[in-house]
């Protein structure tokens, strides 16, 4: 039976959404096309009508995952407009987020995989990381901090690293300690921004 253009477009979106979650859980090379398409409720044959290659899907899925993550940052900051950075830190460096392997930060889930992918996948990650930095930069600027770009990079690196290490250990107390230590360092960096502005 022939699929309408509208249904084909909906199917494509479904595959991208499902792949963005399954890639985060299994890695780009940890799941095949058959299982990806099965997860989307479609046959493997339908894949080639929608995507040029698995790498094409990986690039689209990475972009979708990064967009989803950015929306979560926005939702966290909107929930606490008085201190949006604290809200993002609390959400990101939490045990709940640590456990969200399919829906959590794609940089943590797929960062090392992305480094081995082609330019299109890397471009999706680069765009998403720049969006993270822009959000962090705005939040730091609102605290009166200077050198927002450098501080945003340091904060993002600290948060991504802590979440990554927390996922690599079995001991939940050790995982929590990494998250707490990172949160403390990030808060200290933001406090230094405020102090620098006050003394200027």
TrEMBL record:
Domain annotation HTH tetR-type: ranges? 9-69
Which superkingdom is the protein from?
Bacteria
Annotated keywords: DNA-binding, Transcription, Transcription regulation
DNA-binding region(s) from the entry = 32-51
Q: Which GO terms describe its molecular function?
A: DNA binding
| Protein name according to UniProt | Transcriptional regulator
């Amino acid at each position: 039976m022939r699929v309408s253009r509208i249904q084909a477009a909906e199917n494509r979106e479904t595959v991208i959404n499902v792949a963005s979650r399954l890639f985060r859980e299994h890695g780009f090379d940890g799941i095949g096309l058959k299982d990806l398409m099965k997860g989307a409720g479609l046959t493997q044959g339908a894949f080639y009508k929608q995507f040029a290659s698995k790498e094409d899907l990986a690039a689209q899925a990475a972009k979708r995952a990064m967009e989803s993550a950015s929306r979560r940052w926005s939702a966290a900051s909107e929930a606490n407009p008085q201190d949006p950075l604290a809200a993002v830190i609390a959400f990101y460096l939490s045990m709940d987020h640590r456990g969200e392997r399919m829906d959590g930060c794609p940089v943590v889930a797929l960062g090392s995989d992305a480094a081995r992918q082609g330019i299109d996948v890397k471009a999706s990650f680069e765009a998403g990381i720049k969006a993270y930095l822009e959000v962090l930069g705005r939040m730091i600027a609102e605290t009166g901090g200077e050198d927002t770009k450098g501080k945003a990079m340091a904060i993002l690196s600290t948060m991504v690293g802590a979440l990554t290490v927390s996922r690599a250990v079995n001991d939940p107390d050790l995982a929590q300690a990494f998250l707490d230590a990172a949160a403390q360092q990030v808060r200290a960096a933001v406090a230094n921004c405020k102090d620098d502005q006050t003394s200027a």
